[in-house]
Amino acid sequence: MSKKYAIGIDLGGTNLRVALVSRDGRIIRKIKTPTSEEILDSIFKATGDLFSDNIEGIGLGIAGIVDRKSGRILISPNLHVVEKIDIVNEIKGKFRVPVFIENDANAAALGEKWVGTGKDFSNFVLFTLGTGIGGGIIYNNKLFNVSAEIGHMTINTHGEKCHCGNIGCLESFASARAILTKAVSILEKGRESLLREYCGGNFYKLTAEDIYKAALDGDSFARGLLRDAGKHLGIGIANIINLISPEAIILAGGLIGAWDIYVQEAIKEASRRAFKELFDMVKIIPSSLMDDAGIIGSAGLVFQV
Ligand SMILES: [Zn+2]
User: In this structure, which residues have their CB less than 5 angstroms from ion ligand 1?
Assistant: First the structure.
């Protein structure tokens, strides 16, 4: 008889999330801990805490380019340590159940398709908007097994060097890291802003939430930063609409907290740049699973949803 649960693991640059997930996509228990250098030990410990005879398998979502044949991570710009580990075989060896691996944003897209905002769409693209920008594509009701590195599409011939080594990437204009880097460099040049008070002069303490709060408090500098990032996000969205003509674009990640400035600007820019006929057909909507999409989707790999 098939077993009741799977374990879903979402390994990002900041947090490791591990969850026990039921066959119908419900989280039974979850564990969240900061990502450490001792990645395998942390995974073994959290997984061990949730493991039982009732586990069908383990699904793993990791930020980076996945080689699905070997089960290894070819490159992970924000988490280089995983490139050296034979992670699938290590976990298989320890727990003796099938282990599946996917890119973290792809896994999140699968989670949204299974039990989230994407449930009723056959074709959609998920953008994860956080420290970096990731993407996942659901095509004809299935996870499209491609890299979907949406954050690294070139949207400008100039710009800061991205973690991937390229310049002009969407991520280096529209991510939380990009917004904060730009904020700090301009504040250091003496720009007046409420943000100075928020961080007591230590600009490196600023967060994306601070920028949004300052924007809501009427700070024109903070508002300008979010609008500029949103405008670049809109270029990325327009490219995806013209390329894939999805039914929906689902937005997830911490930055969608700034929906009414950052995302609204993106929608406006995308409407200017995409084919009108395609833009009129797409719904641009928030994720319902948010941070849980990755662990749910990783478990979904096991159940082959
Ligand atoms: Zn890049």
Answer: 152, 162, 164, 166, 169
Report the C-alpha gap between 51 and 69 in whole angstroms.
26
pTM for the model:
0.95
Q: d(Cα 146, Cα 137) in Å, to the nearest integer?
A: 8
Lowest-pLDDT range of 69-73, 213-217, 267-271, 290-294 = 69-73
Q: What are phi and psi of 36, to 5 degrees?
A: -115, 170
The CA 188 to ligand 1 mean position distance, Å, reads: 25
User: What is d(CA 245, CA 123) in angstroms, rounded to the nearest whole number?
Assistant: 8
* CA 163–ligand 1 middle distance (angstroms): 6
Distance in angstroms (rounded) separating the CA atoms of residues 91 and 269: 44
> Ligand 1 mean position to 21 CA, how many Å?
33
Q: Which residues is 67 bridged to in the sheet?
A: 72
Q: What is the pLDDT of residues 189-238, one digit of tens each?
A: 999 999 999 998 899 999 999 999 999 999 999 999 999 999 999 999 99
CA of 133 to the centre of ligand 1 (A): 9
Distance from residue 150's CA to the centre of ligand 1 (Å): 9
59 three-class SS: strand
